[in-house]
Amino acid sequence: MWVNWIHYDRKSRERADRYHLKPFRVDFLYQGFTITGDFKRTIVEVDNIWHIAEFKRDVEESLRSQRASLEKFTEHLRRDRWLRKRGWEVCRFSDLEAKKEDQMYLFYEMQGEPHQIPPTYLPHKE
To answer: Is the backbone of residue 112 left (phi > 0), alpha (psi -120 to 50) or beta?
Structure first.
């Protein structure tokens, strides 16, 4: 989903800076009434290892040389704050969580609503 359009132009330093500070595309967008009747605007992001780690250019070498990137993490935090300042709620799930967790649990989490469905995927217990 496109929430902001900034045409990337590598010749324009201003556009390049704006491109990195403001989110332009998100995974999912939910806008509407929740179960309790509140109107919400929610951005849902599903992040995998590519969102938080740096890799070498060689794909095979990358798989052996992943390292957490505080720079990439900071970029996501800034984009989340940019969205929140403009009235969006941001809900992030890991790719692993999206694959293994009960879908109704994820739905209620995304809506920010109280629910009786406990998480079923507990990574620390695997």
So the answer is: left
Judge contact between 4 and 24, C-beta under 8 A. Answer: yes
Q: What is the pTM of this model?
A: 0.71
Task: Give the model confidence (pLDDT) of 55-97 as tens digits.
Answer: 666 656 555 566 778 888 888 888 899 889 989 999 999 999 9
Total length of the chain: 126
Under the phi-then-psi rule, with left for phi > 0, alpha for psi from -120 to 50, and beta for the rest, what region is 32?
Answer: left
**Beta strand 89-94 with 39-47: parallel, antiparallel or unpaired?**
parallel
Planar angle of CA 59, 60, 66, nearest 5 degrees: 75
